[in-house]
Amino acid sequence: MAKGPVVAIVMGSDSDLPVMSESTKVLEDFGVYYKKMILSAHRSPDDAAKFAKTAAAKGFKVIIAGAGGAAHLAGVIASFTTLPVIGVPMETKELKGIDSLFSIVQMPSGIPVATVTIGGTGAKNAAILALEILATNNKNLTKRLEVFKRSLAASVRAKNKKL
Ligand code: RP5
Questions:
Q1: Pocket of ligand 1 (CB under 6 A)
Q2: Which of 163, 66, 81, 75 shows the shortest CA–CA distance to 124?
Q3: Ordered per-residue pLDDT tens for the chain, 163 residues
Q4: Distances (CA, A) of 161 to 44, 152, 154
Q5: How many Å lie between the centroid of ligand 1 and the Cα of residue 56?
Q6: How many angstroms does the Cα of residue 163 sit away from the middle of ligand 1?
Q7: In 85-138, where does DSSP find H-type helix?
Q8: What is the reported pTM?
């Protein structure tokens, strides 16, 4: 794995940080370098575009983008890069994150964003998906993901045994 950060975790606001820390926890567990940034498609669009245009040249391999409400960050970033972009819809007070989910998932033909579920589970799964993308080129990471999947099966079996 490269020494610099290979996963970029971007979010629309510092209010997204508690949810997006579910992504950082997973990457830290796997020892994968990441960089987190606050960038807004609406409040700092020039900075978001600049980041997206230069991300590949900086060595990033995958981008995770979390945003809520009219959540355009992942889509705007995807429009400026060929790197895979994973979108995490934030839960919102008014519409419970359905607004964020629909904003992220309904991309036009040609500009995909891999959209995960709303909230913390989505942020966690976004990191696992990022690891799976990186693992296509990294046998060591593949093995560690296999161990992780076996641990999930073991935990289900343990719960079943307890019933
Ligand atoms: C979005 O608006 C952010 O991603 C955040 O989820 C939401 C609310 O932002 P704040 O008003 O808390 O800064 O752009």
A1: 11-13, 15-16, 40, 67-69, 90
A2: 66
A3: 567 899 999 999 999 999 999 999 999 999 999 999 999 999 999 999 999 999 999 999 999 999 999 999 999 999 999 999 999 999 999 999 999 999 999 999 999 999 999 999 999 999 999 999 999 999 999 999 999 999 999 999 999 999 9
A4: 52, 14, 10
A5: 26
A6: 42
A7: 98-105, 120-135
A8: 0.97
